[in-house]
């Protein structure tokens, strides 16, 4: 079953390669699609969708981020699946 979540991450998540690392990690998850973007200083937003397993793994990763990052807060909201999404990418 496909799931979709809008995720907001706060902390030291801008200027540390968070978005690029997220795209790299997402590429390892077969069903994961969506986007990630900076949404303000110290804030990143991601839409993730895919299988239960892949979205859970991505949520776990987003809660930690890459080595240089520091996640202070993460909020997760379930949203409708968008069938038009075909890949996971950085957007502006």
Describe this entry's structure for a reader:
- It is a single chain.
- Strands 4-1-3-2-5 form a 5-stranded mixed beta sheet.
- Strand 2 (33-40) and strand 3 (43-51) form a beta hairpin.
- With 92 residues, the chain is an alpha+beta fold.
- The longest helix has 11 residues, at 52-62.
- It is 22% helix and 43% strand.
- The protein has helices spanning 18-26, 52-62, and strands spanning 2-12, 33-40, 43-51, 70-78, 88-90.
- The termini are far apart.
- The protein has 2 helices and 5 strands.
- The protein has a single domain, classed as 2-Layer Sandwich (Alpha-Beta Plaits), CATH 3.30.70.
Mean pLDDT: 96
Main sheet: strands, sense, barrel: 5 strands, mixed
What is the name of the CATH topology? Answer: Alpha-Beta Plaits
| β-sheet strand percentage | 35-45%
Strand order of the largest sheet: 4-1-3-2-5
User: What is the class in the CATH system?
Assistant: Alpha Beta
Span of the ends, CA to CA: 29 Å
Structural class comes to alpha+beta
| Domain unit count | 1
- Write the CATH architecture name: 2-Layer Sandwich
Shape: globular
């Amino acid at each position: 079953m496909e799931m979709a979540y809008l995720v907001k991450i706060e902390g030291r998540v801008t200027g540390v390669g968070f978005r690029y690392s997220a795209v790299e990690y997402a590429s390892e998850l077969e069903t994961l699609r969506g986007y990630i973007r900076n949404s303000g200083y110290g804030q990143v937003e991601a839409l993730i969708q895919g299988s239960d397993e892949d979205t859970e793994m991505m949520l776990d990763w987003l809660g930690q981020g890459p080595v240089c990052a520091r996640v202070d807060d993460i909020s997760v909201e379930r949203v409708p699946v968008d069938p038009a999404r075909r890949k996971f990418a950085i957007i502006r």
